[in-house]
Amino acid sequence: MRRSLADKIEQYIKVLIEKSGAGQIEIQRSELAETFSCVPSQVTYVISTRFTQEEGYVTESRRGGNGFVRITRTQWINKVDNSINRNQIKAYLDDLLKRQLIGNQEYTMLVYVVESAAQGLAAEQQNQLFQVIINALGKYTSSL
Amino acid sequence: MRRSLADKIEQYIKVLIEKSGAGQIEIQRSELAETFSCVPSQVTYVISTRFTQEEGYVTESRRGGNGFVRITRTQWINKVDNSINRNQIKAYLDDLLKRQLIGNQEYTMLVYVVESAAQGLAAEQQNQLFQVIINALGKYTSSL
DNA sequence: TTAATTAAAGTCAAAAATAGTCAAAGAGGG
DNA sequence: CCCTCTTTGACTATTTTTGACTTTAATTAA
């Protein structure tokens, strides 16, 4: 599985966030660019395409001396807006896995279900299915 | 019956999928076209005619730098009768559990999903959802 | 304190790298 | 000769990579 530069940077950042333990990191754009031998705007590109609110992240930054980019993984999960998309539900599953409310196998299986649904169902049905899954997982995890 | 180029490419891809051991491969359309000395759209043609959901495959792709086409083989069960009800899917789950293709936790969780669906969705949506689950489980179990 | 300098990060659009679409032309089998 | 499936290629769409130029903040010099 060959990966593009953007993919590698994305992975790198995600690992940093995981390791941080706080769901939040601060990086220096130019430093990261240096690490990957690319132009700084490449980092901006990765952040703006892969760490969006849709994907479950919030970013802040500051220019000038000692500038930084802060990326925070948001917790929001299943509330408010009743339209759930595939990325949101995947983020939800990621969270459950991380909190060990489901194991690796269950996680993998559910990802298959979500992917199949995303592939084979119309948007409205997808939404219903995702609602059902969220609902069922709520019951399931609280029954443990 | 002489084998067409399309047939050869189809076979080639199927062998790759077999050898992958994971029921899934990623190829670069242009690279494959190069291998067979044909135009890239020939590859698209093969994929869209021989690797459909009907045939038991799902495909995803990405354009741009390091783009790819990912083909995943799914495992279809009895596609003839396309109406599945709650009892049938539960029987299916029981079977998977008995054959230890899924564990107790996964079983329990899926039952929650099925029950939630049975309670919260109209018949037609239920059916679609169950199809998706069957499909996803086929993929999942064949990936173990 | 203010102005200049330096050190970041942001913007935007062009260029490059892929994949997709669609319709016309070609090739076999009935 | 027709009909269907295959092959091609021109054109489109998407994603990544790059770089010139802009904006903002901190630091230093006057």
Question: Quick gist of this model?
Answer:
Chain A has 144 residues and is mainly alpha-helical.
Outline the structure in words.
2 copies of one chain form a homodimer. The first copy, chain A, has 144 residues and is mainly alpha-helical. The first copy, chain A, is 58% helix and 11% strand. Chain A contains 6 helices and 3 strands, in the order αβααββααα. Chain A has helices spanning 5-20, 29-35, 40-50, 86-98, 104-120, 123-142, and strands spanning 24-27, 57-62, 68-73. A 3-stranded antiparallel β-sheet of chain A has the order 1-3-2. In chain A, a hairpin with a 5-residue loop joins β2 and β3. In chain A, α1 (5-20) crosses α3 (40-50) and α4 runs antiparallel to α5 (104-120). The longest helix of chain A is centred in the C-terminal third of the chain and has 20 residues, at 123-142. Mean pLDDT of chain A is 82; it is low at 76-82. The interface between A and B is medium-sized, with 33 and 36 residues. Chain B binds a DNA duplex (30 and 30 nucleotides) through α3.
